Amino acid sequence: MRATLARVKRFYGGHPLHVLTLLACFALAGYAVAKTAVSPQWPAMLVWFLAAVVGHDLVLFPIYALADRSLTTVLHALRRSPRTRPPVPAVNHIRIPTLAAALLFLMFFPGIIRQGGDTYAAATGQDQEPFLERWLLLTAAFFAVSAGVYALRLWRHRRRTTGKRVRRHEGEG
After folding, report:
1. DSSP annotation of 173
2. Per-residue pLDDT band at 166 (split at 50, 70, 90)
3. What is the mean pLDDT of residues 142-156?
4. Could you tell me the CA-to-CA distances from 24 to 4, 9, 13, 20, 36 in Å, in that order?
5. Which tens digits make up the pLDDT trace of 43-60?
6. Quick one: 8 exposed, middle or buried, by C-beta within 10 A (0-12, 13-18, 19+)?
7. DSSP three-state, residue 28
8. Band of pLDDT at residue 86, cut at 50, 70 and 90
9. Residue 130 DSSP SS3
10. What one-character DSSP code corresponds to residue 103?
């Protein structure tokens, strides 16, 4: 069994589970294409898909890559100064709630701009009034939880470092 796995790894260059996962992804993509191809609206779906790819890769990706680079540059500049050096990195405590808020904004966007209000009202019996408020509340909650986790990590770091100093001083006496 190990010899077979070693041969597959040597031939493919990766773990055999990677090959199986890749084949499963191709099978799923093929199934989706087969189901979509029989729909009379496949040209419109293809246009939307290509617009999403182009919109993401040529417009959105450079914007959020620049924003992330700016964030890391500012945080790196703060870490150089010993007075302002945080003991716990803050970058992921900013990235994660920002990503969650951005993805949620994409989901809520049609409701926020009240697109399809009549259809939404007919389907649910409600209006789209609370969408912006709910998105803002969820975004605030994401950042509040992230700030709480960051504060907890800072507290634990300070507790560990002061505990080490106390033990070090006790050992000197």
Report:
1. -
2. low
3. 95
4. 21, 18, 18, 6, 18
5. 999 999 899 999 989 998
6. middle
7. helix
8. confident
9. coil
10. H
Q: Give me the amino acid identity at 21.
A: T
**CB burial string 69-89: b at 16+ within 10 A, e below:** eeeeeeeeeeeeeeeeeeeee
Residue 127, both tokens? 């209006």
Amino acid identity at 164: K
Amino acid letter, 109: F
| SS3 of residue 40 by DSSP | coil
- Determine the Cα–Cα distance for residues 137 and 104; give it in Å rounded to an integer: 11
Strand, coil or helix: 106: helix
Residue type, 10: R
**What ranges do the domains of the chain cover?**
1-38, 40-81, 86-173
- Using CA atoms, how far apart are residues 17 and 26, in angstroms rounded to an integer? 14
